[in-house]
Write a structure and sequence with these properties.
Mean pLDDT: 93
Structural class: alpha/beta
CATH architecture of one domain: Alpha-Beta Barrel
Shape: globular
CATH superfamily of one domain: Metal-dependent hydrolases
Strand order of the largest sheet: 1-2-3-4-5-6-7
Largest sheet: 7 strands, parallel
Length: 231
């Protein structure tokens, strides 16, 4: 199982500190999802080797609108292992679920964002994972926490109806906000997710990373097709 993290300079924790804490909590890897303008200054492969955990390079795009999103996706897709886009508005959510070059739509229910059956079916058709973000449930209180739980319940029903792909995260901004998989399963239960569903969502980060590393490798043409150099 993997967790997505935001590292310094976005948050106070270094990639190494996040990776070491995640390893202690039983994760097999972390995906670093800083925005492009706050890239980490660490060599993720070297950090992973030192911590004994897979550290995956990722990005979370935070465009203002779909036209800006299109340019960012085209620019970063060829060099990024896991490419995410932050939703939160109807326009960005609609763009993201129809974009097969994207891996994950994060925070789709935040702000003025929302999803319906049509958008979730589009995500399923295009292989865009929807983020089941437990962070607001963990860190908000009062009406904000209640609204976050209601949003997760709606998202669970939509995902189940469309058999849509999804990931699970607590969106930790520091090593102190990391939670073990069993803790995330307990939190997700309030929105109707069972333990197996949470574990599948955490493992999906690793499956994405493995698939995309193959696609980024030299010689990749398509699924199951590679160009081999002559011996």
């Amino acid at each position: 199982m993997y967790e997505a993290v935001r590292a310094r300079p976005v948050g106070p924790s270094t990639v190494a500190r996040l990776a070491a804490t995640a390893a202690d909590y039983g994760y097999a890897g972390v995906v670093v999802t800083n925005p492009p303008d706050a890239a980490v200054d660490a060599a993720v492969d070297a950090v992973g080797e030192a911590c004994g955990i897979d550290v995956v390079d990722g990005l979370e795009l935070t465009p203002a609108d779909p036209s800006q999103a299109a340019g960012a996706v085209g620019h970063h897709r060829p060099t990024t292992t896991v490419l995410c886009l932050r939703g939160g508005t109807g326009a960005l959510n609609r763009y993201a679920v129809r974009q097969p070059k994207l891996d994950v739509l994060t925070r789709p229910m935040a702000g003025r964002g929302d999803l319906d059956h049509v958008l979730v079916r589009a995500a399923a058709e295009n292989g865009v994972r929807l983020a089941v973000d437990l962070g607001p449930v963990l860190r908000e209180t009062g009406p904000s926490r209640s609204a976050a739980i209601a949003g997760l319940r709606k998202l669970r029903e939509l995902i189940a109806d469309a058999d849509a792909p999804y990931i699970v995260t607590a969106s930790p901004g520091s090593h102190l906000e990391l939670r073990a998989p069993r803790e995330l399963a307990a939190v997700a239960a309030v929105a109707g997710f069972d333990r197996e569903a949470v574990e599948r969502g955490l493992a999906e980060w690793g499956r994405l990373a493995a698939r995309n590393r193959e696609r980024l490798a030299d010689g990749y043409v398509g699924p199951g097709v590679r160009v081999e150099e002559d011996a």
